[in-house]
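Regression test case RT-17, inverse folding.

Input:
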């Protein structure tokens, strides 16, 4: 099984409010990435924390399982760990994406999975015109490293630990924008 893991637990400090439930193209911001992952993976897990009820409501009709991260305030590593801990025993790999990146494309997720199947690389990352970005696929053999992450660094440390084990799917397009501030949201809407 290939799982999707959507990180949607953060406190949105720079935004000043729960940004994931704000509307973009007539649906909540978080729903865009959730739907992309749900289409391209076998099962979707969404890590929630800050304003969990609002995020759950925004995803009410998306086929997914919710994972509570009580330690969301300690940083993104706790969300990665909570999500990886929730993976069923038959999970071969997990594709991680961010809830505040509505531009994630399900075809990109499918290309990551195809690359992983072809290369057997432990980590497969999207690369947008030379810049590494999300989503990123992690093989089961990397799960222990993901569980050991700490702070607000995400899985970047695992990716950079050994560049030789990372395969890339190169995309000739802009890096999907993430929404960190009200200005980012206004720009995305415009």
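Golden output:
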């Amino acid at each position: 099984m290939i799982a999707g893991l959507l990180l949607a637990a953060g406190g949105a400090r720079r935004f000043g409010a729960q940004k994931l439930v704000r509307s973009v193209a007539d649906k909540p911001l978080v729903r865009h990435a959730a739907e992309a992952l749900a289409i391209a993976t076998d099962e979707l897990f969404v890590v929630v924390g800050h304003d969990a009820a609002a995020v759950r409501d925004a995803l009410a009709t998306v086929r997914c399982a919710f994972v509570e991260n009580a330690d969301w305030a300690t940083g993104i590593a706790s969300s990665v760990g909570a999500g990886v801990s929730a993976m069923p025993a038959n999970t071969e790999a997990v594709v991680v994406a961010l809830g505040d990146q509505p531009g994630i494309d399900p075809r990109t997720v499918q290309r990551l999975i195809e690359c992983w199947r072809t290369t057997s690389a432990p980590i497969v990352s999207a690369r947008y015109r030379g810049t590494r970005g999300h989503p990123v696929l992690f093989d089961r053999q990397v799960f222990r490293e993901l569980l050991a992450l700490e702070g607000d660094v995400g899985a970047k440390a695992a990716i950079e630990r050994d560049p030789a084990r990372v395969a890339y799917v190169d995309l000739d397009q802009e890096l999907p924008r993430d929404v960190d501030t009200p200005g980012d949201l206004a720009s995305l809407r415009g």
